[in-house]
């Protein structure tokens, strides 16, 4: 096997930095898309915060906000790219330590904060039971059928399953081009079979509905390593075709006044395509010019923002809109700004303190 496949030459420092900053910017865009959906693109608990349906608060933009839920699919494509990049050439212990230390500190803090806020007497939202809140700290609440503290944590359960598959199939035996291609092809076929037989266990492990986005991101990392790799482009193309199918199948419906959203199949395909094309542009080096330092800060805030923005956003919306009487758009912007400020505090005083300690503890070999 060619040396470039097993021992890739390191990327120039400036190029790597630019690429990561562009990914940071894309992460922030995806997070803001999801926030737009949760604040103005759906009904549900947020109606209590606004005092009426967001379709009345945002008579024009609510249709656009409804597409924001597809920010999750964009996140998954990014994740496929980043996990393949970070796991390449890394031993299993280091990979596990990196992922756990990245996910858990802000997640634990968000669980504690949201649980505490929802127990306050003036907050109109019900907190989960103490036992369920404690179990939420494991990230296993969804398969165990326990109430979730964070509505967005279902995406973390998908991420964890992807990490496990990638660790077992790629990191443990050692990453190389051939193994990654076989992993992508095998997962794509197995996910299609799981969908066809409709076996719950296979569906839980192989995630047919989300696999195309992770696989597409992995394929795009192969493109980043070699833009002329026809197999990598094939992986990306097939993943996009399957991914847009699942997105339309899940999110489109015929026009119906009983439904909040009025998404078109074309609009859904367009947003999914944006996710793939944006990561492809980064992979191909077309966004090297996006080298602003603030993107690094934005990337650091994205994950804690994503964790806290939905449930605590309800509390902020009610305070700004119904107590302080800010107009709808002002409330929207003030809520996003507040959640970004909270994300900054979590990053500064939780992640920067606990992440390196946890990584070091998990990386140490044990006798």
What's the layout of helices and strands?
Blueprint lengths: L2 H4 L6 H28 L5 H5 L3 H4 L4 H4 L5 H17 L4 H27 L11 H7 L16 H19 L5 H21 L2 H7 L4 H15 L4 H22 L13 H19 L9 H31 L4 H36 L4
Characterise the protein shown here.
This protein is mostly helical. Helix content is 72%, strand content 0%. It contains 16 helices and no strands. The longest helix is centred in the last third of the chain and has 36 residues. The N terminus is likely disordered.
Keywords, please?
367 residues; mainly alpha; 16 helices; globular; disordered N terminus
Task: Output mean pLDDT.
Answer: 92
Count of runs of 4 or more consecutive helical residues = 16
Quaternary structure state of the chains depicted: single chain
Query: Tally of extended strands?
Result: 0
Explain briefly what this protein structure is.
This protein has 367 residues and is an all-alpha fold.
């Amino acid at each position: 096997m060619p040396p470039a496949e097993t021992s890739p030459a390191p990327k120039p420092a400036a190029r790597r930095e630019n690429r990561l900053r562009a990914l940071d910017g894309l992460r922030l865009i995806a997070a803001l898309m999801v926030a737009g959906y949760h604040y103005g693109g759906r009904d549900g608990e947020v109606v209590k915060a606004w005092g009426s349906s967001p379709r009345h608060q945002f008579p024009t933009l609510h249709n656009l906000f409804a597409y924001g839920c597809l920010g999750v699919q964009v996140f998954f494509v990014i994740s496929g790219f980043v996990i393949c990049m970070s796991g390449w050439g890394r031993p299993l212990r280091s990979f596990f330590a990196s992922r756990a230390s990245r996910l858990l500190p802000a997640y634990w803090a968000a669980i504690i904060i949201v649980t505490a806020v929802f127990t306050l007497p003036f907050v109109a939202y019900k907190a989960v039971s103490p036992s369920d809140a404690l179990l939420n700290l494991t990230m296993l609440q969804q398969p165990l059928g326990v109430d979730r503290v964070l509505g967005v944590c279902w995406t973390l359960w998908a991420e964890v399953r992807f990490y496990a598959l990638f660790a077992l199939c790629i990191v443990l035996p050692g990453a190389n081009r051939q193994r990654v291609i076989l992993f992508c092809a095998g997962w794509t076929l197995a996910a299609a079979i799981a969908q066809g037989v409709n076996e719950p266990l296979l569906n839980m492990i192989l995630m047919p509905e989300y696999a195309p986005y992770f696989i597409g991101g992995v394929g795009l990392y192969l493109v980043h390593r070699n833009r002329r790799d026809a197999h990598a482009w094939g992986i990306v193309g097939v993943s996009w075709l399957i991914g847009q199918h699942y997105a339309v199948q899940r999110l489109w419906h015929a026009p119906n006044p009983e439904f909040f959203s009025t998404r078109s199949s074309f609009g859904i395909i367009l947003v999914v395509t944006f996710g793939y094309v944006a990561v492809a542009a980064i992979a191909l080096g077309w966004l090297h010019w996006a080298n602003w330092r603030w993107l690094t800060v934005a990337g650091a805030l994205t994950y804690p923002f994503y964790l806290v923005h939905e449930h605590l956003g309800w509390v902020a919306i009610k305070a700004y809109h119904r107590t302080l009487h800010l107009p709808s758009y002002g409330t929207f912007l003030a809520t996003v700004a507040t959640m970004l400020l909270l994300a900054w505090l979590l990053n500064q005083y939780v992640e920067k303190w606990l992440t390196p300690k946890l990584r070091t503890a998990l990386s140490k070999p044990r006798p």
